[in-house]
Amino acid sequence: FGRNVFFYEEVESTQNIANELVFKGAEEGTIVLAERQVKGRGRLQRNWVTGEGKAIAMSIILKPSIPPKVAPQLTLLAAVAVASAISKVTNLKPNIKWPNDILINNKKVCGILTEMHGDSDLISSVIVGIGINVNQEKDEFPNDIISRATSIRIEEGKKILRSKIVQAILMEMEKLYAIFLEKGFVPIKLLWESYAISLGREITATTYSETIVGKALGITEEGQLLLQDEEGKIHTIYSADISII
Ligand code: BTN
Questions:
Q1: What is residue 142's predicted lDDT score, i.e. its pLDDT?
Q2: Domain span at residue 222?
Q3: How many other CB atoms are there within 10 angstroms of residue 10's CB atom?
Q4: At residue 84, what are phi and psi to the nearest 5 degrees?
Q5: Structural domain count, the chain
Q6: Cα 74 to averaged position of ligand 1 atoms, centre (Å)
Q7: pLDDT, tens digit, for every residue of 125-148?
Q8: Which residues form the signal peptide (predicted)?
């Protein structure tokens, strides 16, 4: 991964550039990096702010031959790659909040957005977008998110070279992706669970249609969250916003 790197000073979103590259036939493992995103996208139609010169905004192009329902597993894989890269490059102990927020000391340091192309039988490409707060200081975060967001620098107490983190992520991604293609999701699931913060805890899951309060039991073989509500009923959650109670 990272043999083809496209670097931009300013883009709307690295996801859009990666999309265009896919249509032009970009190879698997192609990376798009940007210093500034003017229309960065988050999950659930949210905006994503990239702290200029201090954050990582990266999209990675993957071309696995898998059915679309397996795609969420790649999002979890990317979360494991980021968590393990951060633990290798810093002294921090990152956690993953389902599906793919990376938290340090309970605050969000990284978000991952996966988008795919293909038809209902087979995916032709997956674009994994990774946004990481690296060198921002506390006063650089908007007031409305400072209680929930952090940067590696704030938690580590010193600046970290962004290139070191990018390199570590690419190495981890490449390693995990090879394991995934060869052995499937099970080994990735075990690693994901070793970083998971919400399992066994009471959480609130807000889906597009309802809010469910219950205990996070684990994830399925496909990567969805299993949630047991107060009446004992088990829900399989495909997409939701999770808060830990
Ligand atoms: C989230 O937590 O909501 C996901 C945030 C994903 C942000 C990254 S930054 C690089 C890539 N380009 C985007 O526009 N979004 C992703």
A1: 86
A2: 202-244
A3: 10
A4: -75, -30
A5: 2
A6: 15
A7: 999 999 999 999 999 998 888 899
A8: none
